[in-house]
Amino acid sequence: MPSDRLDLVSKLYQPSGWPRVLEAATGNPSSAPLVVDLDPTTFCDLACPECISGKLLNQGRFTPERLAALAEELVALSVQAVVLIGGGEPLAHRGTRNVLRVLGEAGLAIGVVTNGTMIAQNLDELAEYASWVRVSMDAGTPETYGVFRPDRKGRSVFDKVVGNMRLLADAKSGALGYSFLVMSRRLPDGSTVSNHSEVLQAAELAHDIGCDYFETKAMFDDDHHIIQVPEDILDSVDRQLEKAARLEGDSFQLINSSTLTALRTHVGPVQPKEYHRCRVAELRTLITPSGVYVCSYHRGNPLARIGDAVTDDLADIWRDSDRGMVDPQRDCHFHCARHLSNLELEKIDRGERRELGRDYDPFI
Known about the structure:
This protein is of the alpha/beta class. The protein has helices at residues 18-25, 64-76, 96-105, 123-129, 142-148, 158-171, 199-209, 231-244, 258-264, 314-320, 328-331, 339-349; strands at 35-38, 81-84, 109-114, 132-136, 175-181, 184-186, 192-194, 213-217, 253-256, 284-288, 291-293, 305-307. It comes from Streptomyces albipurpureus.
């Protein structure tokens, strides 16, 4: 995974997406989003206590017929990339395999965020069509996995997921990632349990599986604010990542998310924003069974809902909706991964533009 895939600002300057980027930068409604996050279902087979979408789970899904139609509508809108995500577990929907085929054969880039339990059932389509698959692991051992990512009966399915990842590593044409969310939980007796001591072990396992990258991230609260962790935990993570650096090479990378950088610089849980319109909302959107939302940070927020994809055509929703209903200064105090992209779009509007580069990654 090239490091510039994390540079969301530079990705705005790709020629294929530039006409719509320019529309968004100048404050005009875009003709269609470039990237869509799609939740096929709100069902999940795991019961993670820290799940940020826990309150939204098991509240509906698209029918297989409607999900198939949505895939065709995304193609017709000239969307460039789709991320199958949730909400729930995207591979739990029996129609997801068909979505992968339809989007893949139409040439759209596809990302998949999954818990990994159902990779085997979707292996052929994931291997052939997915640009990348990121598996949420958050542990390096079955025991810790069972604490933070138990199934609905309280069991650890760590070994099953690792086995599934090995299957995909052997067959994939895209990238495979191992995601590690640094978490701590205070127990009723006042003690704390954490997964932070397994970062190195997990990175070594990711390398052994055949993953292309290992990503560490910080934990969020229900409002998407970054939760500050004790300094000793952060120091421990940094020491382990330094040791894991020996694993890096052409086929394996360590990735630090911007959320961990925020923890290290002690910027606090709030990210102030001076602008009142999210220009990125013209370039990305979220489609779920409960509605179409301005962005994934506002999943389930009725004040950021722009349509109903269960009943309405996506082109009609996009044409008739107001993506400016969310005021970032008022509504987005959390750390947004695309804050810098919004600032760059303002610069583009002022005529401060970089030279266009090459097309390399449509996931802006």
